[in-house]
């Protein structure tokens, strides 16, 4: 195609509407790409749209829950397109196979994988779109495309003076064909990657224009609340409908699979009616346990079953027989709630043979399955509109709240917003599992010769596969959903990925020890569980790094030096540990009344070492300072890394100091922030985040700040008091 500038201007001004560029990616057949004359838009790929009006629209396949994907992933595209990130408009992806997380085969955001899995694909998408625009401009000017450059959304002529806006080129760019790989920008030319900048969604959140699930408003919308069984598994058999149906604003009340739904014109009207509700419950299949019984069951299972071998090197039994000293310890961690600031909620509307669901969900394709379960609709008839999330921490990977909203909307056939109260969020949510760890270490003249770690507890996938398996096969009929889940569990580690939620962080034990054994004794007391920020790393981090400190003490060696001498084969572990110790003045005495503890842990591909300085004031633990060194590969936005690591540290400290969900006869004792405490502003320590400069591919930062801070605090308290704590939460 050869065109002079006059012809080009005729084409571009003659087109109606905007123009969109879309790069075609193999295997993306279900998402239409290319130039669309009827709308004047160009979609070069499944992520990008460029319009004649110079709009650049990026489809974000990972949800934004405060962790910075909105900014970080947009920055990758902006870098290769050579535009300021703030000029790109972001929209959340619909449910489509092309937007699945490649590590999980599901369209979910979790595991601190958003940046790691998007690092190359999004840069390639931006680079291809940019190259097609350059090629189009070069044809207009009849020059070599390699001589053209780009700057701030324009293609610049080799003379350095003339330029064309991207919007002027989108229709022509759609006709270009790229052969071979498009080179990505070298690191030396980056303008935005690696630059400390603010979050692109900050203004929308500060001004209230960002739409969270709680903000969704629809015409003629009603509000629903759900009264659930006080014990997991209980079913409502009857209730005093006549007493509540006549209350102000109440429009309906009925029994569902999840409990009793109350519907009213206003949210508070539904809550007031709920206070008058009296429900008869069938507890024949309900959970009937307490916290003490859970751990008694764990100990019994551990003694009767040594568990599945997950890692084995050398012979730990022989090492123990030959050791001059054998150290044993047992660690307990309780159930934990997620306590997201935005409680669970969803809005659903059944109409015209389909359903729309607006929800703050970490897994929109699982949300679609959840809604399909409670309607007569196939997943293809259900549209999930993902909103901003007011915190996730893994809780919003489980879709029970969408199931509830869909069930109510299906019965009413009007828009329904269902909201959980804070008390309901605490008492009826899915939890981080309680876990038990049995450790044995063999010492010879201060040398660690044997390491044995037995992990006792459930696996998250047992509870998660219910909707996850059908989401991978949305074409399957609904009567097969539960079968797919059972098959997925049976094929775990063969046809489906192995569930490592109980053992992650333990099997990657980094220290050079000749004899290592890690085993998992699977036992499940029936308490519903789900992913929790840093998942298995959270409890294994506490066990591994506390026991390492115990072994150092028993050997009479400094905890830092004890670890360092076993890390010669792990340079990245060693570097963050040395950096954190140096920044914390590890070799110098702590201020009077304080002590320091350290911990080292790798999770989600990120290496983190932390030193905690703590003391006891007025009978309470006080954390004064946390020094953290982190190696997360190439950093896209240092400010987001700092924010996420600091957030993870405070999240972990909250769990270490206060986190505990307890059961009495199957009912949760805690109900709100007065008895499920969070760390408050005046209690937060000084946090220093030191980032290692690295050219390795980026890894996750949303969760790795959590695991090491818990044992580091416990180790500091031991250094202060001489008393070792092996159960969480820690006490003064």
TrEMBL record:
Q: Residue limits of the Aldehyde oxidase/xanthine dehydrogenase a/b hammerhead domain?
A: 207-285
> Could you name the domain of life of the organism this protein comes from?
Bacteria
Concerning InterPro entries, the annotation shows:
Ald_Oxase/Xan_DH_a/b, AldOxase/xan_DH_MoCoBD1, AldOxase/xan_DH_MoCoBD2, AldOxase/xan_DH_Mopterin-bd_sf, N-heterocyclic_Hydroxylase, OxRdtase_Mopterin-bd_su_IorB, TAT_signal
Q: Which GO terms describe its molecular function?
A: oxidoreductase activity
Pfam families, alphabetically? MoCoBD_1, MoCoBD_2
PANTHER family given in the database record: ALDEHYDE DEHYDROGENASE (PTHR47495)
What is the protein name given in its UniProt record? Isoquinoline 1-oxidoreductase
Source organism per UniProt: Marinobacter nauticus
């Amino acid at each position: 195609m050869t065109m002079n500038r006059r012809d080009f201007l005729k084409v571009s001004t003659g087109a109606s509407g905007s123009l969109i560029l879309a790069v075609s990616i193999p295997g993306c057949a279900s998402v239409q790409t290319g130039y669309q004359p009827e709308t004047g838009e160009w979609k070069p790929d499944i992520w990008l749209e460029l319009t004649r009006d110079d709009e650049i629209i990026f489809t974000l396949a990972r949800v934004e829950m405060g962790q910075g994907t909105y900014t970080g992933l947009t920055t990758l595209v902006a870098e290769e397109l050579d535009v300021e990130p703030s000029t790109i408009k972001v929209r959340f992806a619909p449910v489509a196979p092309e937007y699945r997380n490649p590590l999980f085969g599901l369209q979910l955001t979790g595991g601190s994988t958003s940046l790691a899995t998007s690092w190359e694909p999004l840069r390639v998408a931006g680079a291809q779109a940019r190259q097609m625009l350059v090629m189009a401009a070069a044809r207009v000017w009849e020059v070599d495309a390699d001589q053209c450059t780009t700057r701030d959304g324009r293609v610049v002529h080799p003379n350095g003076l003339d330029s064309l806006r991207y919007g002027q080129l989108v229709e022509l760019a759609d006709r270009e064909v790229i052969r071979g790989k498009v080179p990505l920008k070298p690191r030396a030319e980056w303008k935005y990657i690696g630059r400390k900048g603010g979050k692109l969604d900050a203004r929308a959140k500060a001004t209230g224009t960002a739409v969270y699930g709680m903000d969704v408003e629809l015409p003629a919308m009603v509000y629903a609340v759900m009264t659930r069984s006080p014990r997991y598994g209980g079913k409502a058999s009857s209730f005093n409908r006549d007493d509540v149906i006549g209350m102000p604003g109440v429009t309906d009340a009925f029994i569902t699979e999840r409990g009793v739904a109350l519907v009213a014109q206003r949210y508070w009207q539904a809550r007031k009616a709920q206070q008058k509700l009296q429900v008869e419950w069938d507890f024949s299949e309900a959970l009937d346990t307490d916290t003490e019984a859970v751990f008694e069951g764990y100990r019994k299972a551990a003694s009767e079953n040594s568990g599945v071998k997950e890692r084995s090197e050398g012979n730990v039994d022989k090492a123990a027989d030959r050791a001059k000293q054998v150290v044993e310890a047992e660690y307990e961690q309780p159930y934990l709630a997620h306590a997201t600031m935005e409680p669970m909620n969803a809005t659903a509307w059944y109409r015209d043979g389909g359903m729309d669901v607006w929800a703050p969900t970490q897994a929109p394709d699982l949300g679609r399955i959840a809604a399909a379960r409670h309607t007569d609709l196939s997943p293809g008839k259900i549209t999930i509109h993902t909103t901003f999330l007011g915190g996730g921490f893994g809780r919003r990977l489980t879709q029970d709240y969408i199931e509830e909203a869909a069930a109510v909307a299906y019965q009413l056939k009007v828009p329904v917003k269902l909201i959980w109260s804070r008390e309901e969020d605490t008492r009826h949510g899915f939890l981080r599992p309680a876990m038990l760890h049995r450790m044995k270490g063999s010492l010879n003249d201060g040398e660690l010769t044997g390491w044995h770690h037995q992990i006792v507890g459930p696996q998250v996938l047992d509870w998660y596969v219910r909707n996850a398996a059908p989401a991978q096969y949305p074409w399957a009929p609904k009567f097969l959903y539960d079968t797919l889940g059972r098959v997925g569990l049976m094929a775990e580690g063969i046809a489906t990925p192995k569930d490592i939620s109980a053992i992650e962080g333990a099997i990657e034990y980094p220290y050079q020890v000749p004899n290592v054994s890690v085993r998992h004794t699977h036992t499940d007391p029936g308490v519903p569980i789900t992913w929790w920020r840093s998942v298995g790393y959270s409890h294994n981090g506490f066990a591994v790094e506390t026991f390492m400190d115990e072994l150092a003490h028993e050997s009479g060696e400094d905890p830092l030096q004890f670890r360092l001498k076993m890390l010669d084969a792990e340079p990245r572990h060693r570097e963050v540990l040395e950096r954190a110790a140096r920044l914390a003045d590890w070799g110098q005495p702590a201020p009077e009344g304080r002590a320091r503890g350290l911990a080292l842990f790798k999770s989600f591909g990120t290496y983190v070492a932390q030193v905690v300085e703590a003391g006891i004031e007025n009978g309470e633990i006080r954390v004064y300072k946390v020094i953290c060194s982190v190696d997360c590969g190439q950093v896209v936005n240092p400010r987001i890394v700092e924010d996420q690591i600091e957030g993870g540290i405070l999240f972990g400290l909250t769990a270490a100091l206060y986190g505990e969900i307890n059961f009495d006869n199957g009912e949760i004792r805690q109900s709100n922030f007065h008895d499920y405490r969070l760390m408050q502003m005046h209690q937060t320590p000084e946090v220093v985040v030191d980032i290692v400069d690295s050219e390795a591919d980026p890894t996750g930062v949303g969760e790795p700040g959590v695991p090491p801070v818990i044992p580091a605090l416990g180790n500091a308290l031991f250094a202060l008091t001489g008393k070792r704590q092996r159960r969480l939460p820690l006490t003064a």
